[in-house]
Write a structure and sequence with these properties.
Blueprint: E1 18-21, E2 28-29, E3 34-40, E4 53-57, E5 65-69, E6 74-77, E7 83-86, E8 92-95, E9 100-105, E10 111-113, E11 117-119, E12 121-125, E13 131-135, E14 143-145, E15 150-160, E16 165-175, E17 216-217
Parallel strand pairs: 2-8, 10-16, 14-17
Antiparallel strand pairs: 1-3, 3-4, 5-8, 6-7, 9-12, 11-14, 13-15, 15-16
Bound molecules: calcium ion (CA) (2 copies).
Length: 218
Amino acid sequence: MVTIDVDPVTVADTTPPTVSCGAPDGQWHGDNVAIPCTASDDDSGLADPGDASFDLVTSLPAGEESADVPTDSRQVCDGAGNCTTAGPIAGNMIDRKAPTVTITTPADGATYAQGSTVIADYTCSDGGSGVGTCDGPVPDGALHRHLDPGAKVFTVTTADLVSNSDQQDATYTTTIASGRPVAADDAYTAEQGATLTVPRQVSWATTPIPTETPSGRC
Ligand SMILES: [Ca+2]
Ligand SMILES: [Ca+2]
């Protein structure tokens, strides 16, 4: 009987690890996302066992929105020094910015005569998930009547479809006929024969103020 000694054959590992990652889900997100990945190496094994399962993440700053946000990337190596790079994975839809509100009328800083009207004109726009709500004291395009004198604020609130919200104010003044702004506790006096316009909310008239729809009063 002949015995032959065979030296063990060493097979070189020249194949990098296999990495598998998820994909963007095609939905808008209100915050950064994490895409899970797994890695393995059938030859020499992963150099870092922690690479067997990990996440690639996006890092879009607050106040920004984009439909194509890439994740970071990660290098995964085996015990023989073969490496592969996971990511970056593009196409993540992330919206961290509220819609922009533009108020045209009532105009910020304007003065309106008591009893005058304007057509409310405001818009909301969003470069990400889209405008979900855009609400003012009256609907855009509706009649807005200046009945009550004094300093006024016309506020429009908005939110996009992933709940980023904001608001914008237009401050203006409603005056009586003299052009002087009127405070709520002003005493109303006039010379004999003068015409005096009295705000309705302090009027002693017994007839109710009619409801005006869809216009509003400020
Ligand atoms: Ca390998
Ligand atoms: Ca947005």
